[in-house]
Amino acid sequence: MAKRNILLSIAIAALVATAAMVVSAAAAFGAKSQSSSAPLLQLTGNRAQIEQFIRFDQKIRLAPAEEKIRHDALVDMPAPCCKDYSAATCCCQCNLSRSTWGMAKYLITRKGADAKQVRAAAEQWVKLVNPSGFTGTSCYRGFCGRTFKNNGCGGMSADDLVY
Which of 102, 91, 86, 100 is nearest to 148 (CA)? Predict the structure, then answer.
């Protein structure tokens, strides 16, 4: 009887440990199991969030497979400030592009987002930061120093956001 109780205690402990690992793994990969309609990120478009996304672009390094996700998500999307280029490359590294790239890097590395989710977030981001829409000619017309809301790039230096 005592041997049976010991074996039962060991089995229960193993089940508890397994359950804890499953809960931990689910928390770590929770973004991947969310429904596709649930937002992976709450977008505000405020100065603090723009600056945060620019920092993400500076600090987050993507593995080749992650870079492919970012590229695939943005390559067919015209850059809002220079429509002759894709949002994946833009014509330069303006703050509008940096913020979009940083958001994409964050979504890929921290939320497990796929290309479709990154693309949807990027489109939402562009609409949020300039509800009137971008002409796609800002860079060609010298609007780099304008705010996003005024059809601009938000500046050319990550350390000097024009907001």
Answer: 100
Instruction: Give residue-wise pLDDT tens across range 14-56.
Output: 433 433 333 333 333 333 334 456 679 999 999 999 999 999 9
Cα dist from 59 to 44, 54, 127, whole Å? 21, 9, 25
CB 57 within 8 A of CB 98: yes
Show the tokens assigned to 143: 């609007």
pTM: 0.77
- How is residue 86 annotated by DSSP? B
- Residue 39: the pLDDT is 79
CA angle 128, 129, 133 (to 5 degrees): 85
Burial 112-134 (b: 16+ CB within 10 A, else e): bbebebbbbbbbebbeebbeeeb
Q: How far is Cα 106 from Cα 91, in angstroms, rounded to an integer?
A: 22
In the chain, which stretches have pLDDT less than 70?
1-38
**Where are the strands (E) in 4-145, listed by range?**
none
Q: Where are the domains of the chain?
A: 45-150
